[in-house]
Design goal:
By secondary structure, this protein is an alpha+beta fold. It contains two helices and eight strands. Strand 3 and strand 4 form a beta hairpin.
Length: 172
C-alpha cells in the first residue's frame, strides 16, 4: 500500500512540475493602420498566469482537471485576444480584451465561457457599451468607445472581437 501511495505521489508531483513546462507562450499579432495615423495591434495570447503567483492548490486543481479531460478524450485551452489602440504618435490609449475558454476533442470544439474587459489609459476616452457572448466554437465581444475633449465627442469607435477554436485546439 505504501508503494502505491508513493507511486501516486510521485506521479502527482511530476505532473505539477511538467504542466508549466508544456505551457506555451504563443502570440499571434496583427497590425491595422488607420487613415489618421492611429493604429490597432491585435494579439491572441495564452491565459497563463505567472506560475509563481498561482498557489499549490490552484495548480493541483488544474492538474486534476487536465487529467479528467485526458481520460474523457477532451482538452481545454484558454486564450485572450487583446486589441490595443495607439495614437499616431505611438501612445497606447486603450486596450480591449476578450477572454475565452474552449474544450475540444478530435470531433469538435466548444466555447464554455467568454468575458470582455477594457483598460483605458487616456482620460479623453470613455467606454459607452460592451457585451460578450459565446456559443458553439466561438467567443464574441462588441463594444463602443468614444473620445471627448471638453465634453465634445471627437471620435467614436465601434468594434467586434471574435475568437474561434477548431478541433485541434487552434484559436484564432
Amino acid at each position: 500500500m505504501k508503494k502505491i501511495f508513493a507511486l501516486f505521489l510521485f506521479v502527482l508531483i511530476s505532473g505539477l512540475c511538467i504542466i508549466p513546462a508544456f505551457a506555451s507562450a504563443s502570440r499571434e499579432e496583427k497590425i491595422e493602420y488607420l487613415d489618421d495615423g492611429s493604429y490597432y495591434i491585435s494579439i491572441v495570447s495564452d491565459n497563463k498566469e505567472n506560475e509563481n503567483e498561482s498557489g499549490i492548490f490552484a495548480r493541483l486543481l488544474e492538474f486534476f482537471r487536465k487529467l479528467i479531460d485526458f481520460f474523457k478524450g477532451q482538452k481545454s485551452v484558454s486564450k485572450t485576444k487583446y486589441l490595443n489602440y495607439y495614437s499616431s504618435d505611438g501612445r497606447l490609449l486603450w486596450t480591449a480584451a476578450l477572454e475565452a475558454d474552449f474544450i475540444y476533442s478530435k470531433n469538435n470544439a466548444t466555447c464554455t465561457d467568454a468575458d470582455f474587459y477594457m483598460n483605458i489609459y487616456d482620460s479623453d476616452w470613455k467606454l459607452h457599451s460592451s457585451e460578450s457572448s459565446f456559443g458553439n466554437d466561438t467567443a464574441h465581444a462588441h463594444f463602443l468607445i468614444k473620445q471627448y475633449k471638453l465634453l465634445v465627442p471627437l471620435k467614436t469607435i465601434e468594434k467586434d472581437m471574435t475568437m474561434t477554436c477548431d478541433n485541434k485546439g487552434e484559436v484564432r
